[in-house]
Write a structure and sequence with these properties.
Shape: globular
Helix content: over 70%
Number of helices: 16
Radius of gyration: 24 Å
Strand content: under 5%
Length: 414
């Protein structure tokens, strides 16, 4: 007994329709990919638009090599603080003390190196230990005694500001040793043949491009292996080309001036290290877990108190590093240093995609948020915008970022 089965072939598409249909499908896939990743790429696109607008409004002054280098030096402390603050916010907390800790560590460094002639490398180590200790003390009160982070860090903001004034006796103290100054103002040394560019900076830029391309391709393959949603191939290639172009432009601008600032290398190491920590380590997943759903994290065996304690210890250490960077740049410690630094760090994290409810955010997002604020500040200064209007514009930018987060979550929920 046999059954005659005739395969049915689809009718051919009308002439001139197949190409447009495939193009429409590709466009739809790209739009769907953008919608799914709007939180991740929205502020990156916004940063590009802000840079382009200010480049036009300032007649290209924004993208002059000297200004780009100053932009990095002026905003390094905010970016360092933003990394630590992003981890704190992801864990579902807040830290209002980082500006005061930054000032206190700068004052402590000045007392050690200027008044007591302590070698600057030893002073740097001691300052990092002091910053970590300050964060650990606050973390213990929050994690193990259950005092809300807002109250503990608000008290810390007052306490460390007072300690700063006590150390400095109300006066500005400086200058710092030359080696310490290089943390905030130094550049990589010039070496190699004469090329009209800074050779080491060019090599570092090419190495960074290779690292980013390999990392992005590897992450995409890993997501595909676990059947996770990935960007359409064309959109992924567009993203890769955009990242490579951005790195190349910044590299050429820096290499045509004095080269890469030393603080930029420190910042790059932090971004790579903390990015890996949050993406690939158990500790990073635990931070997301306690911020996203604390009861579920506890039931899953996450040691939430230990994780919270370490998050604040880490924030203290990064605040100390930021304090050293800004004090070295200014070449002096001041009782009024660090004012509103905590607000800039918090704003950078929220503009970069952190969620008010915790459990959401990336290290790269914190950097993007800090750069948005930095470009706004720098561009408005170049345009001679008054400080009053600068505050208004930055406040509206923060409000728009948080409003976008709320709108995005509501749309996802619906």
């Amino acid at each position: 007994m046999s059954t005659d089965v005739t395969a049915k072939t689809p009718a051919p598409a009308p002439p001139g329709k197949s190409g447009s249909a495939s193009g429409e499908n590709l466009l739809q896939l790209m739009l769907d990919g953008l919608r799914r990743n709007m939180r991740q790429y929205g502020m990156l696109i916004a940063l590009g638009l802000i840079v382009a607008l200010f480049a036009v409004w300032t007649d290209g002054d924004l993208l002059l090599p000297r200004n780009v280098s100053n932009l990095v030096l002026q905003n390094s402390y905010v970016l360092i603080l933003a990394i630590g603050m992003m981890l704190v916010i992801i864990a579902g907390h807040i830290d209002l003390s980082v500006g005061s800790v930054t000032a206190f560590v700068g004052a402590f460094a000045a007392v050690l190196t200027v008044q007591h002639d302590v070698a600057w490398p030893l002073a740097v180590v001691l300052c990092l230990v002091v910053g970590a200790g300050a964060g650990a003390a606050q973390g213990f009160l929050i994690a193990y005694l259950g005092i809300p982070s807002f109250i503990v860090t608000l008290a810390g903001m007052l306490v460390f500001r007072g300690f700063t004034e006590i150390l400095l006796e109300g006066q500005t103290l400086g200058p710092f040793p030359g080696g310490l100054q290089k943390i905030g103002n130094g550049f990589l040394p010039e070496t190699g043949p004469e090329t009209n560019y800074h050779n080491i900076t060019l090599l570092l830029g090419l190495a960074l491009i290779a690292f980013v391309v390999v990392q992005e391709v590897r992450d995409r393959k890993r997501q595909q292996e676990f059947s996770l949603d990935v960007l359409p191939r064309n959109l992924f290639l567009l993203k890769l080309v955009s990242i490579v172009a951005a790195i190349l432009v910044v590299t050429m601008l820096l290499a045509s001036y004095k080269g890469a600032p030393i603080v930029l290398l420190i910042l790059g190491g932090l971004v790579v290290g903390y990015g890996y920590l949050m993406r690939n380590s158990i500790f990073g997943r635990h931070i997301y877990a306690i911020g996203g759903n604390l009861p579920a994290a506890k039931l899953s065996g996450v040691k939430d108190k230990k994780v919270t304690f370490l998050v604040f210890l880490n924030m203290g250490a990064l605040a100390a590093l930021a304090g050293l960077a800004i004090a070295a740049r200014l070449n002096a410690a001041s009782p009024k240093a660090g004012l509103n630094y905590e607000l800039e760090a918090i704003a950078s994290a929220f503009i970069g995609g952190a969620s008010m409810s915790g459990g959401v955010g990336t290290v790269l997002g914190a950097i993007i948020g800090g750069l948005v604020l930095g470009v706004l500040n720098n561009g408005m200064n170049l345009l001679s915008v008054g400080s009053d209007w600068q505050q208004v514009i930055k406040g509206l930018a923060l409000l728009a970022a948080v409003g976008f987060d709320v709108w995005n979550k509501r749309k996802s929920g619906s």
